[in-house]
Amino acid sequence: MIEFTNVSKSYQVGGTTIPVLRDISFQIGSGEFVSIMGPSGSGKSTLMHIIGCLDTPTSGQVSLFGASLASMTRDELARTRNREIGFVFQNFHLIARMTALRNVELPLVYAGWRRSKRIERATQLLTDVGLEHRLNHYPNELSGGQKQRVAIARALATGPSLILADEPTGALDTATGTEIMGLFQRLNQQGVTVVVVTHDDSIARYASRIIHVRDGEVVDN
Q1: Rounded to whole angstroms, how far apart are CA atoms 70 and 56?
Q2: Which among 42, 95, 137, 197 would be 20 to 30 A from 102, CA to CA?
Q3: GO molecular function terms here (predicted)?
Q4: CATH classification of 2-220 is 3.40.50.300, yes or no?
């Protein structure tokens, strides 16, 4: 599903080139649950942004769902993000003025679903994550764990084959974080490929495989 071949990424800051990823190669197969683990500044978030079609490498090849990212147009990259990839972030990124139901509906609006079908789908997803009693609550009326469940339901809205989670338990207490990681495990058992980016060893161990990143290099996968 995901293949990196000799991928490097650097940024220009003024007249200085700052390397972030250095000659990285690895594969993630369909249906895997993988953690990308490394300390702050190791390059793991940049790695996730490239997997998620949010950024492009400076050099090397990236293949996603059997297609080279370099061959995709901007519209094709956007369609891939919307239909094939679900994103979950540390700080939830929910829209404050929208209810839980409306937050989960939003990707379906962009995908062109009819309103009745959007409501049906969003209601079912929120029920699946145990929030059927919170459909019409706003984010400021929800606990941290409930917000992350809404974010996961939203990530699943279009039926993606890949979930990318960036420090998904970073803003949660230990017990709630355990619940969220258990939810990722259940999704993986249903066939969804899950990639979790974390600096926390206790979170990384929920995955079946860990890719260790340090100083922009894969040191173990």
Answers
A1: 8
A2: 197
A3: ATP binding; ATP hydrolysis activity; transmembrane transporter activity
A4: yes
For Cα atoms 154, 186, 4, give the angle at the middle one, nearest 5 degrees.
75
Give the model confidence (pLDDT) of 60-118 as tens digits.
Answer: 999 999 899 999 999 999 888 888 999 999 899 999 999 999 999 999 998 899 999 99
CA dihedral over 50, 55, 59, 65, signed as positive or negative: positive
What is the identity of the amino acid at 22? R
153 three-state secondary structure = helix
Place of tokens 């492009």: 56
Q: Tokens 């594969």 belong to which residue? A: 27
Angle value at C-alpha 92, between 42 and 31, nearest 5 degrees:
65
Nearest CA-CA partner of 206 in 1, 34, 2: 34
